[in-house]
Specification:
With 407 residues, this protein is an alpha+beta fold. 23% of the residues lie in helices and 49% in strands. It starts with a helix and ends with a helix.
Length: 407
């Protein structure tokens, strides 16, 4: 969802460009200079536009090259927004009613710098500026881009640790309709997820944009996630697929989804199982923290219910998974089959379990860093090894007989 938060900036750039284009002399050089000045002022950024070409006939057409936007002139990180090429097309009668037929962005790159938090005075300063920025964007709000598309785009999350590689999302196609600040904007996108790697297709509606409180910007839609390779997490493997729907605001996104992993495997055991889960989660789209309101999962003849969170870990790269897990309908052999390499589990029987599940971040095997703290019960247990079961039966028989003699 960082995509939609930051895409507002790039859309603002294009919309401002079009507002200016309808009011300045028809000169490419003058128009380029005016665009740079206007965007710098409205976005409080250092803006560079290497080149611009303008054509009026047979229809209005603008092409720009080498657009970069550095928020507040920051040089310690890559430019917040970079566009290799942008093009805008409009009929003259459309421009008269402040409509632009189409805008195309090629080579769009959005770089999200590490979020170190904001001091109270910073938040107060941003709040005081918001009314001024809104006033500057009144004319931009009146302009509507009928179709906006981006190809070969990238969303890059820059880690706070300089020795860590950035996380990159390849956005193959992005299409938005009726783009303006004052209305919901339908969108559709296909992209490659960073971790775990997989393909996402999503469509829905985003906006209207709340400039003073971005987290209150509404959004809703559906998604599919396919071919997600879980082997990037040390200790497990499987190809996951998911689908679902989401809605709410950018700061509080309600997600209902379903996942299926046909060959889910814990490496230490090596026995693949079909893992299925339904979940309801609440996501903060401004920082990625997720509350897992409820997970209903099942594999073989065992089911579980869990709730918890996936949140950023201060001072570490990655997130901590914390769950409360309840298994009222479980089998011992299913659980042991995940964790033991033996061709068949040593014991069978009914099991109940309640445990705290803690998975901290770190580049270690899942089994090595997983922490469990709970209680379990086993009923009607039997050993699968006949000799062991015979000895247990004899011991049980002897203990009952000894108890009878005592009586």
């Amino acid at each position: 969802m960082w995509l939609w938060l930051t895409l507002g900036g790039s859309v603002a750039s294009v919309v401002a460009l079009l507002v200016v284009a309808s009011t300045v002399p028809l000169s490419s050089n003058i128009l380029r200079q005016r665009i740079v000045t206007t965007l710098s002022d409205r976005l409080e950024s250092e803006v560079e536009l290497q080149g611009l070409q303008l054509r009026i006939l047979p229809r209005f057409h603008v092409e720009g090259f080498g657009l970069s936007i550095r928020h507040r002139g920051r040089k310690d990180v890559p430019a917040l927004i970079k566009v290799d090429r942008l093009a805008a097309d409009a009929d003259l009668d459309s421009l008269l009613v402040k409509h632009v037929n189409a805008v195309t962005l090629t080579g769009l790159e959005i770089n999200i710098p590490p979020d170190h938090g904001h001091k109270d005075e910073d938040r107060a300063e941003n709040s005081s500026r918001s009314s001024g920025l809104d006033a500057k964007n009144v004319s931009a709000r009146e302009v509507v881009v009928d179709h906006l598309s981006a190809r070969d785009a990238r969303l890059v999350i820059i880690p706070s640790e300089t020795d860590k590689p950035p996380k990159v999302w390849q956005i193959h196609e992005l299409a938005m309709q009726s783009v303006s600040f004052d209305r919901p904007m339908p969108f559709e996108a296909t992209l490659t997820n960073a971790i775990p790697p997989g393909e996402i297709h999503t469509k829905g509606s985003f906006g209207p944009w709340r400039s003073a409180t971005p987290g209150a910007t509404p959004l809703e839609g559906t998604f599919t996630f396919s071919d997600a390779d879980l082997s990037v997490f040390k200790g497990i493997s499987g190809i996951l697929s998911a689908h679902g729907k989401f809605g709410g605001s950018l700061g509080r996104i309600e997600v209902h989804g379903e996942t299926t992993t046909p060959q889910f495997t814990v490496s230490v055991g090596g026995h693949p199982v079909l893992l299925h889960a339904n979940y309801h989660a609440t996501v903060d789209g401004t920082n990625g923290d997720t509350l897992l309101d409820r997970i209903d999962a099942s594999f073989l003849k065992t089911s579980l219910v869990a709730k918890g969170s996936v949140v950023a870990t201060p001072g570490k790269n990655g997130r901590t998974v914390t769950l409360d897990v309840v298994m009222d309908k479980a089998r011992v052999e299913d659980a042991l089959g995940l964790a033991l390499k033996a061709p068949k589990p040593p014991m069978t029987g009914a099991m109940k379990l309640r445990t705290k599940f803690l998975l901290p971040p770190g580049d270690r095997d899942v089994v090595e860093k997983l922490q469990l703290d709970g209680q379990f019960e086993i009923a009607t247990a039997k050993f699968t090894n006949i000799d062991i079961q015979k000895k247990v039966n004899e011991l049980s028989h002897w203990s009952r007989g000894a108890a009878g003699d005592t009586d």
